[in-house]
What does this fold into?
Amino acid sequence: MSLDYIPLEMDSNTIQTNIQAIRDAVPEHVTLVAVSKTQTLDAIASAYAEGIRDFGENRVTELVEKADAFPDDVRWHAIGHLQTNKAKIVAPLSHLIHAVDSTRIYEALAQHKNASPLDVLLQVHIAEETSKFGFLEDALRELFALPGNDTFGNTSIRIKGLMGMATYTKDTTQIAKEFKGLRSLFEELAPSMGANFDTLSMGMSGDWNIAIDEGSTMIRVGSAIFGART
Ligand SMILES: *Cc1c(COP(=O)(O)O)cnc(C)c1O
It folds into this structure.
């Protein structure tokens, strides 16, 4: 079979079939976040009707528009690199922020807490591409190792775990190696982080099965649910 065109938007049935297939393959302890960036409200509504409540967005304007259009039981995940001047808008709308990739954004988010602490993940740079964001592993180790360190000690923020994106490659050995590295870092940091530190967000459409094998507890899947993005 040859695919000579890319469908721009999938119909509702296809979206729901895709979700069912992924759910069937994903163990219960792993949360499926449907990455709905660039997708229409209709496409998101199809996933919502299929029971999906966790949606991932990477642009602030889209997040605002979509959060406004859907019921409050949706848990919005902010998965994209954040600018400090957007912290104020994103913090109150997000169930979990996956992309804390600098101490600057951490501090900016800490200023915009709600009544309850804001849940975040520290993004770690595990891929080869330098275009990807995240703390370098050693930089993060250093931040944690400082004696009396309170770099991440703000009580208005709860660090729930780590997030990472593997290199975009067909080399599954390399992908597995990168995920394994993130898992080890997670386990290394966990003892000093307490019981809230329980989330390892890794795995996307092309590599979520590898990520789960390597210990992921949360996968972020877009195109395998909604079809290719333009
Ligand atoms: C777009 C995106 C995804 C989903 O990518 P797919 O390959 O479409 O599943 C996951 N995580 C992040 C951070 C993204 O930006």
Notes: The CA atoms of residues 37 and 123 lie 19 Å apart. Residues 12-226 form a domain with the TIM Barrel fold (CATH 3.20.20.10). Residues 35, 37, 58, 79-80, 165, 204-206, 220-224 surround pyridoxal-5'-phosphate (CB under 6 Å). The two ends are 22 Å apart (CA to CA).
